[in-house]
């Protein structure tokens, strides 16, 4: 097997408008993982590049994609191709790749209008690279021991070239999980919950925590997308909201709707989940979630922190600090999902369960 070439940094993809947040997070994570360097980014481009001062062979575990809040993609950087000719973009890319064999080719673009305009090129480049690498016997689809070749197409003549081993980068192009909205769903918000379940829980955790026999309280539940999705998984749900719930959700017979303020209500017995999508200040929501878990009103939490303010990175740190006492008993995971807008999603799951 080939040994990987050394990397000199990595590229990051984020939601457009969140470049400053991903840069702050990058400074913090690269320092705490002993990878000195600096981050380069521009507002509204949807990406950033970290240049490390020293080369490395394997991305430190703490920098792999599932440790980030604001990055949806993280790819170790082999090099950058500029001034590419439309007649032959592949030769300079293959020069960087050398004799390294790969298991997949993921051509990605930024999540911006400029990026979307390059999606046709991404498709044709993927096909052409696959054919060429097959001929060179450097393409072994699905071989888990081999890295995937990532191409970040910034323009027709400008491509960042990276290689990601299993677990380092998101397996989805652009780090974007495309989900289909079910026909009868009461709101698009279910996509956030479904993506959270797939991204923030392991398959075993999903099987254990999202099944019939489980119960949830859904704060800020109207019109009922999250409640509907939880009911589809077999849960019974208490939906808290002064606004109306959709008829279809109420007709499932698995939902009790209580019209009240989510900050002033709590149950008399333990539930499995507390979920919260209330449009409220994050500095009020995070301590509320901590109280639910500490008081034993729920075992696990899944909630959104809305971020309409300027200092979003600081606000997230402040909010997550409210959960620090729970870190001994719970896994806390936070991420800005593709279906999240100006918000992030947080999950707190007890450490010791059957999952
Ligand atoms: C984004 S919507 C929730 C969408 C819902 N998750 C879905 O899937 O359909 C936010 C909801 O929070 C509710 N809300 C805001 N503040 C609240 C509070 N203090 N108590 C209860 N509900 C609240 C609003 O009435 C609104 O229905």
Structure write-up:
The chain is an alpha/beta fold and 355 residues long. The chain is built from ten helices and 14 strands. A seven-stranded mixed sheet has the order 2-3-1-4-7-6-5, covered by helices on one side. A seven-stranded mixed sheet has the order 10-9-8-11-12-14-13, with helices on both faces. Helix 9 (282-294) packs parallel to helix 10 (312-321). The relative contact order is 0.11. The model has no long low-confidence stretch (mean pLDDT 96). The structure holds S-adenosylmethionine (SAM). S-adenosylmethionine binds at residues 186-187, 189-190, 219-226, 240-243, 261-263, 277-280. S-adenosylmethionine binds next to helix 7.
Write the layout of secondary structure elements.
Blueprint: E1 7-13, H1 19-32, E2 37-41, E3 47-56, E4 73-81, H2 90-97, E5 104-108, H3 113-117, H4 119-135, E6 148-155, E7 158-164, H5 190-200, H6 203-209, E8 215-219, H7 225-232, E9 236-240, H8 247-250, E10 255-258, E11 271-276, H9 282-294, E12 298-306, H10 312-321, E13 330-335, E14 343-350
Parallel strand pairs: 5-6, 8-9, 8-11, 9-10, 11-12
Antiparallel strand pairs: 1-3, 1-4, 2-3, 4-7, 6-7, 12-14, 13-14
Helix pairs in contact: 9-10
The structure holds S-adenosylmethionine.
Residues 186-187, 189-190, 219-226, 240-243, 261-263, 277-280 line the site of S-adenosylmethionine.
């Amino acid at each position: 097997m080939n040994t990987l070439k050394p990397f000199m940094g990595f590229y990051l993809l984020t939601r457009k408008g969140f470049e400053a947040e991903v840069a702050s997070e990058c400074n913090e994570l690269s320092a705490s993982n002993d990878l000195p360097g600096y981050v380069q980014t521009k507002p509204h481009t949807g990406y950033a590049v970290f240049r490390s001062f020293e080369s490395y062979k394997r991305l430190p575990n703490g920098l792999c994609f599932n440790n980030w809040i604001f990055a949806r993609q993280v790819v170790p950087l082999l090099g950058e191709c500029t001034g590419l000719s439309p007649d032959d973009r592949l030769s300079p890319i293959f020069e960087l790749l050398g004799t390294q064999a790969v298991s997949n080719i993921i051509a990605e673009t930024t999540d911006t209008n400029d990026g979307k305009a390059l999606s046709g090129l991404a498709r044709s480049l993927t096909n052409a690279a696959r054919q060429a690498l097959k001929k060179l016997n450097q393409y072994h689809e699905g071989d888990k021991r081999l890295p995937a070749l990532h191409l970040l197409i910034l323009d027709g003549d400008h491509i960042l070239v990276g290689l990601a081993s299993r677990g380092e980068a998101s397996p989805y192009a652009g780090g974007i999980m495309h989900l289909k909205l079910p026909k009868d769903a009461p709101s698009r918000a279910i996509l956030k919950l479904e993506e959270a379940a797939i991204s923030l829980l392991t398959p075993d955790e999903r099987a254990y925590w999202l099944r019939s026999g489980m119960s949830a309280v859904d704060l800020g539940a109207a019109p009922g997308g999250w409640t509907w999705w939880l009911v589809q998984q077999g849960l019974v749900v208490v939906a808290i909201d002064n606004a109306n719930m959709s008829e279809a959700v109420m007709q499932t017979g698995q939902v009790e709707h209580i019209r009240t303020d989510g900050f002033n209500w709590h149950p008399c017995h333990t539930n499995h989940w507390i979920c919260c999508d209330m449009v409220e200040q994050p500095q009020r929501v995070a301590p509320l979630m901590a109280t639910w878990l500490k008081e034993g009103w729920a075992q696990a939490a899944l909630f959104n922190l809305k971020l309409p303010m300027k200092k979003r990175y600081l606000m997230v740190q402040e909010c997550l600090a409210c959960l620090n006492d729970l870190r001994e008993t719970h896994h806390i995971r936070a991420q800005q999902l593709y279906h999240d807008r100006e918000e992030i999603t947080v999950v707190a799951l007890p450490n010791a369960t059957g999952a």
